[in-house]
């Protein structure tokens, strides 16, 4: 039986709600700072707009309107739930609420100004809205990054009690352990029946589901996750909720549904039941004309912008050892088709013949499908630099234009890797491979094979154009920091 690393647990009770209350005030302060910056930039910009008439009283207008605008803006965000604690840290809901509140506030200002016949500078108003959305969203993004960093250090975390069958508890605990930025610290487990001291994954058992309220009080928990097998009926679930009614604890239900995007799930009430409607996997959508057009435009722009870098890289490789600049390698693409994947050559000319000599350096261990060594002696001196910043991948813009690859998607595998695929892993071939993807921006070569597969399958099942844009944005950060690249 494979050894399973135990989940990190703490047994000393503490009250985390005091620190969690800091998040909402921090969000308010962040929004106020952003609003102050926007008002200042809008006033300065209005005075220098080339198509607007001079406004001598704009300074006085900006000063007089600053406080009402800031207060009204924050109240609008609050009214849309922008400071609700359960939205902080994950998902796009927080950003959507800020944007929605800004647009609603803009509409309210316009209506009030028209009805009251207020002399409000249209240029100032226009800049206020145009600048307000990106500035506020950026502020929330920076606050979220700070929150994630704090949670990775064990601060601002939730103490979580997981209730369910041993296998379900371990599955939930593994996910929470894998994603520490979520801030859920597993304290222990509650099983339907007594007996075990710990789950197979190492989560200590603190009691049975019937003692949920008592364990919550003794351990100082603020979140209870009810996973599969926790209760045997809806009546038992209702009783468990009643027992927790007087405690300051958040109740969460974990359905037997993982790696599914939230926009694929809808809750439909039906006679007291909450039916979860699940959209079909979206692999077929990733082959639509819109994604192809996006790829063509993006690859063309990428080639134009990266032109000087491509020329300099080609020259450096050629001057180093006189070998070929490009290294075409046979890869497997959409539905198992073969194509030549272009890369700048970063290894010695006879690198393929030396594979056996460096196979022992495979950091992922025996049985891993991928082969990549952190200190590969075949890499040339310019190759180390171009691999560190993924410059060797830039010629793949040509593959994108030829329709063999996409800007975003699973990495194109070698034929030898595909031979080792299971039926589930072959789902990766349902879309065009990409120059970048979820696993590249989530750790690149530092990820395990299982995590790489999980992220690629998540992308295939949950594709959307917004997700592609998000991955491209995160790629810039991953490349500049050279995280997991070798």
From TrEMBL:
Location (main, coarse): membrane
MF terms in GO: transferase activity
Pfam assignment, any one: CoA_binding_3
Protein name from the UniProt record: Sugar transferase
Gene3D superfamilies xrefs: NAD(P)-binding Rossmann-like Domain
Organism annotation: Phycicoccus sonneratiae
Keywords associated with the record: Membrane, Transferase, Transmembrane, Transmembrane helix
Family that this chain belongs to: Belongs to the bacterial sugar transferase family.
PANTHER family hit by this protein: COLANIC BIOSYNTHESIS UDP-GLUCOSE LIPID CARRIER TRANSFERASE (PTHR30576), SLL5057 PROTEIN (PTHR30576:SF10)
Membrane-topology descriptor: Multi-pass membrane protein
InterPro entries for the chain: Bact_transf, EPS_sugar_tfrase
Annotated localization: Membrane
TM regions (residue ranges): 22-44, 64-86, 98-116, 122-143, 293-317
Highest taxon of source: Bacteria
Domain Bacterial sugar transferase: 291-480
């Amino acid at each position: 039986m494979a050894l399973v690393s135990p989940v990190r647990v703490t047994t000393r009770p503490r009250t985390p709600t005091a620190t969690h209350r800091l998040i909402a005030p921090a969000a308010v302060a962040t929004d106020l700072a952003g609003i102050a910056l926007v008002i200042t930039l809008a006033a300065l910009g209005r005075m220098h707009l080339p198509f607007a008439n001079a406004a001598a009283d704009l300074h006085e207008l900006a000063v007089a309107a600053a406080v009402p605008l800031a207060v009204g803006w924050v109240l609008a965000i609050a009214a849309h739930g922008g400071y609700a604690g359960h939205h902080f840290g994950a998902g796009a809901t927080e950003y959507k609420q800020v944007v929605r509140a800004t647009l609603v506030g803009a509409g309210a200002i316009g209506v009030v100004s028209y009805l009251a016949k207020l002399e409000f500078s249209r240029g100032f108003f226009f800049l206020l809205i145009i600048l307000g959305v990106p500035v506020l969203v950026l502020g929330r993004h920076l606050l979220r990054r700070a929150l994630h960093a704090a949670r990775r250090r064990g601060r601002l975390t939730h103490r979580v009690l997981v209730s369910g069958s041993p296998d379900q508890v371990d599955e939930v605990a593994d996910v929470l352990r894998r994603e520490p930025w979520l801030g859920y610290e597993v304290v222990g487990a509650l099983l339907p029946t007594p007996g075990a001291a710990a789950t197979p994954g190492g989560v200590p058992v603190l009691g049975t589901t019937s003692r949920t309220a008592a364990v919550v009080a003794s351990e100082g928990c603020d979140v209870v996750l009810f996973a599969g097998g926790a209760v045997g009926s809806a009546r038992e679930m209702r009783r468990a909720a009643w027992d927790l009614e007087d405690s300051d604890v958040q109740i969460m239900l974990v359905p037997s549904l993982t790696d599914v995007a939230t926009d694929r799930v809808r809750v439909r009430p039906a006679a007291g039941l909450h039916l979860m409607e699940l959209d079909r996997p979206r692999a077929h959508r990733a082959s639509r004309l819109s994604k192809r057009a996006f790829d063509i435009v993006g690859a063309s722009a990428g080639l134009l912008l990266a032109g000087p870098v491509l020329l300099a890289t080609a020259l450096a490789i050629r001057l180093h050892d006189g070998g070929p600049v490009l290294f075409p390698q046979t890869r497997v693409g959409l539905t198992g088709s073969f194509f030549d994947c272009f890369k700048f050559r970063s290894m010695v000319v006879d690198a393929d013949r030396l594979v056996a000599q460096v196979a022992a350096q495979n950091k992922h261990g025996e049985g891993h499908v991928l082969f990549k060594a952190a200190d590969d002696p075949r890499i040339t001196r310019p190759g180390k630099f171009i691999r560190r910043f993924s410059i060797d991948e830039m010629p793949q813009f040509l593959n994108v234009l030829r329709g063999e690859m996409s800007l975003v998607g699973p990495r194109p595998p070698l034929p030898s890797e595909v031979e080792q695929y299971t039926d589930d892993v072959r789902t990766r071939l349902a879309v065009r491979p990409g120059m970048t993807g979820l696993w590249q921006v989530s750790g690149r070569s530092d990820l395990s094979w299982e995590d790489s597969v999980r992220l690629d399958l998540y992308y295939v099942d949950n594709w959307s154009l917004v997700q592609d844009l998000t991955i491209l944005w995160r790629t810039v950060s991953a490349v500049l920091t050279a995280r997991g690249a070798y």
